[in-house]
Specification:
The protein has about 230 residues and is mostly helical. It is built from 12 helices and no strands.
């Protein structure tokens, strides 16, 4: 089991650095410190290794999103905060876990022809959560949930892509700044002061440089009392 885990992680590192097409079995086995025969004992091919990496990323995304739109208790209180917190969880994983990062990259690699589309799964979930926010009356006047979902998905996927080469794009600091700009336009005035742009779950991990406690909350709550921010509800 330990050898299999090592192979998955080393394969993810090579895929992340070189891409699926260029990555070789010899490079992966060398990095893992096992023979090619030992690698083939666990995985029959490079494609099987890539599938294992993708599966880990799928499971990671499922853990972040599972039960949230479907679990009334999680979203009923504040769907927008659930969304903010989940984006922080996702970006922290992308920053810290090469298997998740490589899995997202593999799913988007046209040379793979993967049947998994993690970005689409993320898009569907974000859309569901923002529709929940709209039903709660948590969106600002004139903000349609589908428009908000498009903006959030485009931004978070952009951060994911950029973060593959420049880790600061998926840092807690960067995402907090994004939400500090976004929430005053997105949220109804009555809920804006309750939202914490830096997330409520203490996520961010190693990507959290520059994110000091409470900064995001002050930015959003200050905007809530400003003129014209967040609609008139």
């Amino acid at each position: 089991m330990r050898t299999r885990e090592t192979l998955v992680r080393c394969a993810a590192e090579v895929f992340a650095e070189e891409g699926f097409v260029t990555a070789s079995i010899s490079a992966i086995s060398k990095r893992a410190g096992v023979s090619a025969g030992g690698l083939h004992f666990h995985f029959e091919s490079k494609t099987a290794l890539a599938q294992a990496v993708e599966d880990r990323a799928v499971e990671a995304l499922r853990r972040i999103t599972a039960g949230r739109p479907g679990g009334p208790a999680a979203v009923a209180d504040n769907a927008l905060q659930v969304l903010v917190d989940s984006t922080h969880e996702l970006m922290a994983l992308l920053a810290e876990d090469v298997v998740v990062r490589a899995g997202f990259g593999l799913c988007a690699d046209v040379s793979r022809g993967s049947g998994v589309d993690l970005r689409r799964q993320w898009r569907v979930w974000v859309d569901e959560v923002l529709r929940s926010a709209a039903r709660q009356g948590a969106l600002a006047d004139g903000v349609l949930p589908q428009d908000a979902a498009s903006a959030v998905v485009a931004s978070t996927v952009g951060l994911e892509v950029l973060g593959a080469d420049e880790p600061d794009w998926v840092s807690r600091r960067t995402l907090t700044r994004f939400w500090s700009l976004m929430l005053p336009r997105l949220a109804a005035r009555r809920v804006l002061g309750q939202l914490v742009a830096e997330g409520t779950g203490g996520t961010g991990g190693t990507g959290g440089t520059g994110g000091t406690g409470g900064t995001g909350a002050r930015v959003v709550r200050g905007a809530a009392t400003g003129s014209g921010a967040g609609g008139s509800r």
